[in-house]
């Protein structure tokens, strides 16, 4: 075990009980503030972290060594010479879905860039694809089909029990194809972000045409992250939608009129220590709410986008108050299963694949990533979390 892995293991073991706490909020709602033993001093409590989290306040994802070239990494693949670009089939993050009929098959719904263009041409070259893996959730994934045409970006897909269908949210717009003389992004004023939703009874489709649910006139209309409010006890069609700046909208149904129910008081300006984007929203086994976001503290302080890249925010209620502990939930330094360590230039678009046993244990972190020295080539990366992923894969025969 190298030094980095040893440090992570030690913190995961010891960090959960290393600092006194008063409430579960001091444990980031990722654990419980409790007396750890009968021998604890009277009134002394500390955090007992849930699996997948560690640290003094349970605010760090317990990332484990990853397999190199996993996920959806086709940025070096050849592109038709009649098309533009030098960046292969670059991609930028997505959602991992386990096939309900074939549990050993995993799908990745991801953003890819058309015509061999890379990340620097994400608008208008981004479109949505579905890829498949027979090697487990970590991949590698291989292209299966296109779900949309450009411009569609930042997809997130969830299963809605109330509607018995998959809901695919993304930003983008349908429009006639613009001239594509070079792989460069164009202004949002020409291709607005606009949040839309498409549905399908099966992850393979057929997908309905995208329906606009949040227009570009709203300042929050980008980077959607949906989560159903349905539970076995409350069988509702309501959908919570986290968006840019971790603002929270509530929909009576996935495509109905919406209500803005919360904005974050600490996320009101760019280039501040609390500057975040790209929210990923979920509700845990206790009914508490969480989100991961791209924390841009390094851009604020040093003009770069690494290594402190992940923020975790949390609340007991969807309407708040929400809390942000100003430290990284994950960073852009990756330890690989062969013992090597690499710091990525960019690691964004965070999404978590959770256990399906009711515990909501985080098993894998999915990101859009970019290597040092790259200006446009990018890929989608999957990294295991904690220990539970091992049993998950073992049960599936991997």
From TrEMBL:
InterPro entries, A to Z: EGF
Cross-referenced CDD domains, in alphabetical order?
A: GH43_62_32_68_117_130-like (cd08994)
Membrane-spanning residues = none
Q: Which SUPFAM superfamilies match?
A: EGF/Laminin (SSF57196)
What the entry lists under Gene3D superfamilies is as follows: Laminin (2.10.25.10)
Entry keyword set: Disulfide bond, EGF-like domain, Signal
Q: Which residues form the EGF-like domain?
A: 17-59
Disulfide-linked positions: 49-58
Q: Which residues form the signal peptide?
A: 1-20
User: What name has this protein been given in UniProt?
Assistant: EGF-like domain-containing protein
The protein's organism comes out as Aspergillus mulundensis
Recite the lineage of the species. Answer: Eukaryota, Fungi, Dikarya, Ascomycota, Pezizomycotina
């Amino acid at each position: 075990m190298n030094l980095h892995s040893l440090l992570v293991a030690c913190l995961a073991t010891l960090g959960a009980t290393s600092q006194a706490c008063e409430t579960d909020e001091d444990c980031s709602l990722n654990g419980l503030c409790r007396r750890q033993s009968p021998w604890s001093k009277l009134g002394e409590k500390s955090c007992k972290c849930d699996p997948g989290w560690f640290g003094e306040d349970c605010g760090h994802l317990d990332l484990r060594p990853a397999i190199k070239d996993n996920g959806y990494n086709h940025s070096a693949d050849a592109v038709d010479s009649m098309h533009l670009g030098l960046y292969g089939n670059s991609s930028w993050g997505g959602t991992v879905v386990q096939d309900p009929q074939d549990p050993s098959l995993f799908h990745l719904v991801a953003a890819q860039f058309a015509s061999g263009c890379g990340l620097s041409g994400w608008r208008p070259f981004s479109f949505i694809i579905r890829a498949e893996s027979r090697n487990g959730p970590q991949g590698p994934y291989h292209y299966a089909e296109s779900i949309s045409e450009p411009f569609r970006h930042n997809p997130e897909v969830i299963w809605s029990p109330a509607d018995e269908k998959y809901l695919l949210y993304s930003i983008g717009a349908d429009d006639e194809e613009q001239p594509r003389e070079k792989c460069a992004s164009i202004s949002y004023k020409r291709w607005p972000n606009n949040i839309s939703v498409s549905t399908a009874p099966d992850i393979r489709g057929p997908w309905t045409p995208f329906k606009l649910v949040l227009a570009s006139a709203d300042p929050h209309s980008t980077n959607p992250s949906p989560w159903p409010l349905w539970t076995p006890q409350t069988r509702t069609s309501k959908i919570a939608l986290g968006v840019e700046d971790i603002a929270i909208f509530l929909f009576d149904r996935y495509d109905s009129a919406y209500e803005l129910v919360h904005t974050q008081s600490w996320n009101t300006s760019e280039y501040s220590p609390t500057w975040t984007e790209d929210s990923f929203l979920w509700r845990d086994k206790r009914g508490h709410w969480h989100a991961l976001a791209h924390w841009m503290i390094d851009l604020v302080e040093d003009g770069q986008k690494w290594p402190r890249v992940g923020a975790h925010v949390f609340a007991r209620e969807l309407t708040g108050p929400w809390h942000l502990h100003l430290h990284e939930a994950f960073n852009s330094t990756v330890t690989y299963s062969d013992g090597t360590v690499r710091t990525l230039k960019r690691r964004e678009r965070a999404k978590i694949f959770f256990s399906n046993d009711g515990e909501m244990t985080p098993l894998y972190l999915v990101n859009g990533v970019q290597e040092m020295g790259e200006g446009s080539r990018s890929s989608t990366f999957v990294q295991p979390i904690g220990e539970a992923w091992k049993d998950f894969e073992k049960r599936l025969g991997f």
